[in-house]
Amino acid sequence: MSDEEHQFESKADAGASKTYPQQAGTIRKNGYIVIKNRPCKVVEVSTSKTGKHGHAKCNFVGIDIFNGKKLEDIVPSSHNCDVPHVNRTDYQLIDIAEDGFVSLLTESGGTKDDLKLPTDETLLKQLKEGFADGKDLIVSVQNAMGEEQICGVKDIGGGSK
User: In what order do the strands lie in the sheet with 101-105?
Assistant: First the structure.
């Protein structure tokens, strides 16, 4: 019927790979959950008993893993919640640019230049001072739901003081 070729470019994924479902009653403290479309680390879970006609409810208190904001959600314990895929990757710090972006060395030997300096003051200070002192720094980058942020710094020795 038609000879033309159809090509679909999938630039935007439907978020399917960013989260997975997990029953609310099985999510524990220090786990992860999506609250108001933000990836959160669970800091408090309380479960209320079933009412006359209802489900037991789980009350989650979570801290957004990227901006530190406190979020809360109440979900029936038998329902599924979205849980983000959270990954941590370590990179070696190569450079800190004037515009606040960092240059990181990947395992394959390439560079990753799309990350900004962390907003956390202590982490920022640790990074800048260590870099100024010529230390070899390893940066931990946390990745969830399409967002990335530096979440830790380690000194692996070397450098001159």
Answer: 111-116, 101-105, 86-96, 137-144, 147-155
User: Helices H, strands E: what count in the chain?
Assistant: 1, 11
- Which residue's entry shows tokens 């209320």? 48
In terms of C-beta density within 10 A (0-12 exposed, 13-18 middle, 19 or more buried), how is residue 154 classed?
middle
Q: Output the pTM of the full model.
A: 0.77
pLDDT tens digits for 16-38? 578 999 999 999 999 999 999 99
Q: Check if the beta carbon of residue 93 is closer than 8 Å to that of residue 102.
A: yes
Q: Which residue has the tokens 């329902």?
A: 79
Answer yes or no: are the C-beta atoms of 75 and 56 closer than 8 Å.
no
Residues 91 and 7: their CA atoms lie apart, in Å, by 36
DSSP 24: G
Residue 138 burial by Cβ neighbours in a 10 Å radius (0-12, 13-18, 19+) = middle
Instruction: Report how far residue 149's alpha carbon sits from residue 139's, in angstroms, rounded to the nearest whole number.
Output: 10
Phi, psi of 48 (to 5 degrees): -95, 150
